[in-house]
Amino acid sequence: MKLNFLTGHELIESLRSKKADSGQIVADLKKRFDEVEPKVKAFARPPDFKDAANFESQGCVLGGLPVALKDNICSDGDLTECSSRVLGGFIAPYDATVVKKLKENGAVILGKTNMDEFAFGSSCETSCFYPTRNPWNLDCVPGGSSGGSAASVAADESIWALGSDTGGSIRQPASLCGVVGMKPTYGRVSRYGLIAFASSLDQIGPLTKDVRDNALLLNAIAGYDDRDATSVNIPVPDYLRSLEKDIKGMRIGIPKEYFIKGMDPEVEQAIREAISKLKSLGAEFKEVSLPHTEYAVAVYYIIATAEASSNLARFDGVQYGLRVHEKAKEAGPELVSMYKETRGKGFGAEAKRRIILGTYVLSSGYYDAYYSRALKVRTLIKEDFDKVFRECDLILTPTSPTPAFKIGERTDDPLSMYLSDIYTISVNLAGLPALSLPCGLTKNGLPIGLQVLGKPFGEEDIYCLAYHYEQNTQWHKMKPKL
Amino acid sequence: MAISREEVRYIANLARIGLTEEEVAHFQGQLEGILEYIDQLKKVDISKTNATAHVLDLKNVYRPDVVRPSLSSEKILKGAPSREGNFFKVPKVIE
To answer: In angstroms, how far apart are the furthest CA atoms of chain A?
Structure first.
């Protein structure tokens, strides 16, 4: 079997026992890239396989294996463009903390994966390069915004990858591509070097072929960082050890508000079957209520766009990336017309839409009606979870209401695109950890994802449940035909 | 809540984004739809609720004010669209 099809932990074992050598791993990855990348378009630009081949596999936790990074994670000396024209040509001058940690653990960087521009999207279609395609059906989206990372793992073009998740951007593409994606607790992983979208919601996390790989990669990147004032200084447990814990008696809540009209019947069926499976393994279920669920999308699109409009003010044609200044002098200072031209040409439609919406909800006269109100409803959403977690260890939901949709189907209907994150968004608003793992295939052969939500810093319980489910099912072994 | 084309232009100017007339028209309709959706928040009773700007129980985070190595100005200026010496160069600010 070609080595690129194996998981990270399998490869580390093969390297240890000398059944595989690192050169062969990279050669197989390159061959796979040449074969399927023209169809999938998972990467923002071709990886440098020469760099990846120069790795030392001995004695390090990650075995010297290459990791693919979403195009919004800075790695020293590499193009990092957030799939946006406005950052065209930007070479990161330093390593993000997660990259530094990966390198310290013996990983190398495989390259940067395609994404929705600035992570604004749920389909990878807002990339300035090209849309990434779903390896299970090339006419469908891979989800987003970490769609390139998810597709590269699903297509076995990478062993594993990092993404970022602001409203579901790791979990939703993991679900649509049939891989495992974890958004850790807010504060668990340093955001230093992640190009910011919404700073109170963003987290970096792993996308992998199975749960064990996910725990292994989170072990490497988690922890306090004094360069991110919102990273939390509490010890990082060994997530691999949590896999072996018993799930008997684990109390799991099923929120009644999540099983609603609009959920695809095949998705609902798969989730119900997953619940039966977990019951048979000894987990205990009860129905719970998260009454403010229906407001989550509205709250999110106020808070996330408000924060984005502020974060993206830095892309002004001065410090990096694109500058456009062609027009004859308009009224007002030349500097202002340069800003407007640069940002008008540099940002795509969705980025403009979000910056304008975010500016609107923060503007004088609307601040109280929108932004301030959203922050208060955010409190209510968080309190719903606090209440449920007094009597439950975990919550189980679908990751996405539907399987992968067709490319182009929702591009001109922003609201329907926003609603594809309906099950993932509350988690970011409440700062909780959550993981998506494969739990079925539709009749048409598209993956379905199961979402497991935990208490703040409850990643161990999540991994434990996910691992037991995975070990007793075969979904994670299914591969797309490419 | 309705949003007019004039408002879209006004907000785009605040955000320093140049829009074409087609974009103004297009965004106006879409933003109206989004704002209408967002308006459902008006139904929620928030009279006794405090705001959550941030989920963590963190207050002011301090660190000692000590000098540590940082990136060289050369490395930072390398990405600049326009520079002169050790400065970012920008179009004229004052008329």
So the answer is: 72
Is residue B91 domain-resident? no
Predicted confidence (pLDDT) per residue in A43-87, tens digit: 999 998 887 776 666 667 888 899 999 999 999 999 999 999 999
Asked if B30 has any chain A CB less than 8 Å from its own CB, the reply is: yes
Q: How many CA atoms lie within 13 A of A473 on its CB side?
A: 26
How many CB atoms lie under 10 A from the CB of residue B89? 13
User: Which residues in chain B have Cβ-Cβ distances shorter than 8 Å to A89?
Assistant: 79
Neighbours of A202 (CB within 10 A): 26
The dihedral over CA atoms of A464, A469, A474, A476, expressed in degrees to the nearest 10, equals: -50
Instruction: Note down the domain range covering B10.
Output: 5-43
**A22, A83, A152, A169: which is the annotated catalytic residue?**
A169
> Is A379 close to B58, i.e. CB distance below 8 A?
no
Write the burial class of residue B22 (CB in 10 Å: 0-12 exposed, 13-18 middle, 19+ buried).
Answer: exposed
The answer to whether ipTM exceeds 0.90 is yes
Cα(A317)–Cα(A87) distance, rounded to whole angstroms? 9
B4 in A contact zone (CB under 8 Å): no
Nearest CA in chain B to A201: B54
What are the tokens at A452? 């497991």
pLDDT mean over B49-70: 87
Residue in A243, A230, A262 with CA at minimum distance from that of residue A423: A262
* CATH for B12: 1.10.20.60
Q: Which residue segments constitute the domains of chain A, with CATH numbers given?
A: 1-482 (3.90.1300.10)
Q: Are A335 and B27 inside 8 Å of each other by CB?
A: no
Reference B38, options A415, A324, A332; nearest CA is A415
The domain total for chain B is: 1
* CA A148 vs CA A122, A151, A193: distances in Å: 12, 5, 19
Which DSSP symbol is given to A162?
E
Q: In this predicted model, what pLDDT tens digit does every residue of A130-187 receive, in sequence order?
A: 999 999 999 999 999 999 999 999 999 999 999 999 999 999 999 999 999 999 999 9
* CA distance linking residue A123 with residue A402, whole number of Å: 13
Interface test with A, best of B17, B63, B94 (most A CBs within 10 A): B17
Q: Using an 8 Å CB-CB cutoff, list chain A residues near B40.
A: 294-295, 298
Whole-number Å distance between alpha carbons of A412 and B62? 45
Q: Which residues, in sequence order, are bridge partners of residue A165?
A: A203
